[in-house]
Amino acid sequence: MLLRCMRPYPLLWACEENFEELAVHLIKKDPNVVNVTTKKYKETALHFAAAQGHVKLCTLLIENKLDVNVQNVHNQTALHKAAYNGYDEVVKLLLERQANASALDNLQQTPLFSAALAGHSSIVQLLIGKHPNLNSLNKRGWGAVHIAAINNHTDVVRILLSRKVKIKSGKAKRWTGFLGMLLNRGHREMVELLVTYEVRSNAGTNETLFWAIRRNHIEVVRTLHRAGASINETDDRSGLSTYQLALKEGSFKIAEYILATHNSSEMPEDALHMAAEVGSVTCVSILLNSKAEVNVKNHKGESPLGLALKNSHVGVVQLLLEKSARITENMLVYAIGVNKPGSIDCAKELLLHGANPSAVYEPTGQSALHLAVLVNHYECTKLLLQRGASCHHIDKRGRTPLHYMAVGRCTYALRAFVEETVGFRNIRNMKQLIHMKDQYLGETVLSSAQSYYPEFYNILKHFDVN
């Protein structure tokens, strides 16, 4: 098939297939045959010989007056072909015979681009000394170093960086976008190489640093730090420090790394508050081990424990309580009443660490037990009863916890009461309690249970005897 295709161009075929004797014969027969090109792509015998790495044939053609810089339809020279296909000896020969290392193809790419694209580091070494402008860009706005980086040719990039090429040029002026593209392709080692070069060439790293924090690229932050860049800076856009921004963006590993590599005195005054608020257990642990004050309040009067409770971060609450964080009166009722994932577990931790089981939420007059019944939580109700919470406390509607249990059909709370009070028999003045009327509906616990919660009524009716 190949022979049939090449029959109109016997010299081209001979040069591609390395038939040296045939090529010599054809040239002797007609010296002008060296100038023959393919009809469609305008490729000469030198293009074919160079593309296949045939040094002797390239020499033969050049010695027979074939222009070493002749271009095909894409404006590629034989040097482009040899550079792309990785033939060092052909490249050396062509350069010795005055091939133009700055020749541009249709994409405005020199042979250096071809070698960089294919990852031939030895050829890049041969070409860089002959290239007048290592920072030239192709039509698409990429330099040779960018082409090599995109294709993950680390050795080529190292060679070009050693010649102090500009990396933030052309399309790569959007530097963090370029790094992001490389990371999306899985080229992590390449990103580390470029970021290290960025630091050591004093190119300014804050843009990279804050981009890495916002995108949670911990390896980029580590690379910046290892290369000598400061990672404790202030972001112009948000006004936040790197640590604060990392917590705000949920980049906890980065926040932990910043804490681990800096003295606590270098951190913001509210470092512990921020870590507690977002729920970073490791950051809280690092700060506490660095002797951060566990009960200090921020400018809003909030403590780290209060912020952790507000956001139901159980692990942080445990850590702070173990370090003797102060429990205020409202913390328990807030933790129970907020009723979101993790809040009840926070309430249990507070009770286990000495919170007042009779704490009251002043705006409504509801006790912690009222709230535990309202949210129908078995363990919390049980723990409060074990800690001595009162069943007789009346809120501002005149209701006891039992009123809410009856109206709300609180099955889990009822089970906790039955188990902890031996079927309500251990509650003093039970008959008086079940006949107490609320100020809202004028109903007693007994009548409410009869109307809304028959199972509860069947238990209570045994106490309604003379």
UniProtKB/TrEMBL annotation:
Q: Which Pfam family, any one of them, does this sequence belong to?
A: Ank_4
Annotated Gene3D superfamilies? Ankyrin repeat-containing domain (1.25.40.20)
Give the superkingdom in one word: Eukaryota
From the UniProt record, list the ANK repeat ranges.
Answer: 41-73, 74-106, 107-139, 140-172, 204-236, 267-299, 300-327, 364-396
> Keywords of this protein's UniProt record, alphabetized?
ANK repeat, Repeat
- Name of the protein in question: AAEL010748-PA
Q: Taxonomic lineage of this organism?
A: Eukaryota, Metazoa, Ecdysozoa, Arthropoda, Hexapoda
